[in-house]
Amino acid sequence: MRNNISIIASVALFSCLTNTVMAQNKTISGRITNQAGNPIVASIFLQGNFKIGTSSNENGDFSLSIPQNSTNLVISSLGYETQTVSINGNLLNIQLQPKGDFNLDEVVVVGYGTQRKGDLTAPIGKVDMGEMVKRTVTNPMDALQGAVTGVQIVSSGAPGSTPSVRVRGVGSFNNESPLYVVDGMFMDNIDFLNPNDIADISILKDASGAAIYGVRAANGVILVTTKKGSLNMKSKITYNGFAGFQTPTNVLKMANAQQYAAYATAIGNDAFVKSSVQKFGGTETNPAMDTDWFKELLRSKALITNHNLDMMGGGEKITYAMGLNYVKQDGIMDASNMNQKYNIRMQVDAKVTDWLKAGFSAHFNNFKTYSPNNAAFRQAYFASPLYPVYDPSLELAKPEKFGSSTAIGMQSGFWYNNPIATAFYNTNQTKGFQILPTIYLEAELWKDKITFRSQLSQRYQSTHNINYNPVYYIDNDQRNDRSFLRSAQARNTNYILDNLLTYKDQADKHHWSVLLGQSSREERWRETWVQANDVPASEEFWYVGVDAQGTGSATGYGERGSRNAGISYFTRGTYDYDNKYLLTATFRADGSSKYQTKWGYFPSIGLGWVLTREKFMENQKLFNQLKLRGSWGKLGNDGIQPNAGYATVYSGNNYSGIFGSEGATNGTRVPGYRVGRFFTQVRWEVVEEWDGGLDFALLNNRLTGTVDYYHRTTNDLAFSRPIPFSWDRVYGNWGSVTNSGWEIGLQWKDKVGDFGYAIGGNLTTLKNRVKNLGGLENIMNGYPEWSAEFPARIELNQPINFYYGYEVAGVYQNQAQIDADPIAKRYNQQNPNTPILPGYLQYKDQNNNGELDEKDRVNLGNYLPTIAYGFNLAFDYKKFDLSIAFQGVAGNKIHNLNRAMRRKYNQMNADAAFIENLWTGEGSSNTHPSAKGSVAPWNLQASSFFVESGAYLRIQNIQLGYNFDLNKIPVRVFATADRPFIFTKYNGFTPEITGMGFDANVYPIASSYSLGVKVSF
């Protein structure tokens, strides 16, 4: 009993003490913004007791429990003046003032370190991460489209696909992709990352900023820093996710059955029209069968979803962060077609002693992709609407009763195959995982002056690809009599060891820093594959081995790989006087195992002058910041073929012979070989670039912007050239190419009462010219298998890979016009059986010699935009916000190979616009040929008729958000539309064409519509 009384007394006493302590505390909350009313992430501490503190969230909101007698809070944020605020009441709204010149103290990630924005002498693109994560995309680079000057991003609609990224044009025939550096690790892309995991992206565009990466930097460098915790940061958990659907947009309208039948009749090829009518009904002018192949091939809605959970925080000596992410994107092709990935991100930093820090971070990525057979899109353009997707009357069709073009008497062959069957009988799955661990030690050898950091970054990636084709039969051409399995295993194993010594100091108005660095790296890649026939259709048997089923007729085994290593030494020095006169100089020596020339040397220098810190600018009221910049440097590109300084052996039928033939008995083929006699020493391509720029902020920091002019020349351009009087070609460093242009970025921000708004835009121009081809006048190029008919050309003082052909002057309207034209008159005399007729294209006689010859072929444009731009609008009112982003290009051309293929396949269908605009009589059209002319060889030559404008304007993103507190928990709900509208004159699914701009029906880009929520605890 006595014990029970003691327990009750103790509990009562503890409750009283607890209530007393709680009564002595109070909770205050508030919001932190800047002058324009935009939220700021800031640190909030109790003055005199920095153990009591928190940080504001992305909406600027915070909540903090403090003792009752507390008087002041200390608020600090990077780029803003630290402010001491009196505590009056329980609700505080705090506005921070910019620190010095606007945003000059903002930290920007540069190669192997960071710098104040005000100290930069290079045009480094800084990505607004708040805007980036508004876009419902699964690849971070897709989210940057139209957002950064000097960077062109060409997207693909296929799930899991990698967009094409070009920084300041194209300076190589081999590799145009930038280098990605993720927390110190070199990567070929950042597809595995989720945008919500990224804290910062900096794009090193010019030689001054990128030269510190040497032989890997010629195409630009994209630095990615993932999210980390902060010291004395209250633990924070954030969920950010959305779910929605994708839908096809700008779907290409094809000719319907009635239009197609009329066209087939007009060209005199209508036998299959009659066959379709006989089999499926209707009349020859209005057939009953009318299949819309693109409608059948595309899903009306495809799932896209993204769920991200972040946890981060920190104490006095340890910070941590962890992220979990799940993404799934179904393709809009109605087939086995999707991408799914899981990401886990971890990071821990620890202050071991007063002078030693240590840290570990890791990315784990698991993914699965089902890749579609994109040939189905091409076949859907060709396919006749006069036969059905399924045809139960075809007794031999198995296992599905797919329809066949040959059933109505059409030609057989790949181009006329049933596109739905092509998509259906395809299994191409890739599964894999990737691990990126990083560990570092950082020692402060001299407090606030000298630090040494050693970091080891690794990458291990393993992928397994299964490609399976089952047994099926549709017709004698579209069939597979034996199942086929290809199983391929690939492994990437890379590491980078960086050692960095940094010295920073100042004396009076002089500030300087010196970085000394050494880096070692090794990259290994190996792929092994096996192939087999007669493998059962069930996935449990999709393996090849001694005891595996269906592998008795194994048809192949192979292995390939690569391995290279490098070592580098680099240094960077910075100096400024009174934050007014700026100097940055870098130098890197790169050693590589890929070439006989082992070492390359890459210097750069940048200068800056902050005019607003001069005395003669003290009394002016217009500019808050005005800085002039100039830079020069050299970069390398080792993304070309490794050194070929050894004899190459060729084999094949050209070098073999048949021996032992006697009577009707065939002899034995004896393989023959030839040794290539020519080779040269290959080395990396070298880019030399200079840049001049201006950074400014004016009108009380409401208008900010940058202007740059750049000029970059790629020397030692590598390509293969023919050897005179020989069939041989030799690969070497022969040419040069220049890229130059302007980059302009502007942004206006302001707030009127509760209404805030922002308007921003960027514009980039590009002039690309080939300057040297090693003595050659030109090089012919083009789309594989079609380069002879529709060539691209590389020529001195012209842009890379321009379309080469005749310029169409109009359409012959009558016979008198034909007789009056020397070209047509001469042609008709030489070709009386296939003369030029009214309704045929008229080509321009460039040299006025009265005949159409090679000298009349001209530059018809190329795939590189001369102008790329983006602009955005943002509005917020109280708890609502709305943002709209636009993106577009101009000056580029697309070669519409879909229409051009009619040269060989005259039974193919056509897009409705092509049919509707055909010449039907005098005065009906001066741009399109007649129906008969559309299949005549005269009109199917490489010409401007097949080259169309690639200009477009796309509404890239619209997001409407609402921010509120739910039991003091900040919540944001939002609705997003990604790529909902596009304005273009191009006659195709999309004007975004990768490669050289030849459109052979690419995977179309979809619009996405989603709902999401973000909650922070």
Automatic annotation (TrEMBL):
Compartments it resides in: Cell outer membrane
Query: What is the protein's major site of localization?
Result: membrane
What parts of the sequence cross the membrane?
Answer: none
Which Pfam families does UniProt cross-reference here? CarbopepD_reg_2, Plug
Keyword terms: Cell outer membrane, Membrane, Signal, Transmembrane, Transmembrane beta strand, Transport
Per the record, GO CC terms? Answer: cell outer membrane
Q: Which InterPro entries match?
A: Beta-barrel_TonB_sf (IPR036942), CarboxyPept-like_regulatory (IPR008969), Plug_dom (IPR012910), Plug_dom_sf (IPR037066), TonB-dep_OMP_SusC/RagA (IPR023996), TonB-dep_OMP_SusC/RagA_CS (IPR023997), TonB-dep_rcpt-like (IPR039426)
Signal peptide residue numbers: 1-23
Q: Which Gene3D superfamilies match?
A: Carboxypeptidase-like, regulatory domain, TonB-dependent receptor, beta-barrel domain, TonB-dependent receptor, plug domain
Boundaries of every TonB-dependent receptor plug domain copy: 119-221
Task: Write down the membrane topology.
Answer: Multi-pass membrane protein
Q: Which family does it belong to?
A: Belongs to the TonB-dependent receptor family.
Quote the protein name from its UniProt record.
Answer: TonB-linked SusC/RagA family outer membrane protein
Q: What is the originating organism of this protein?
A: Sphingobacterium detergens
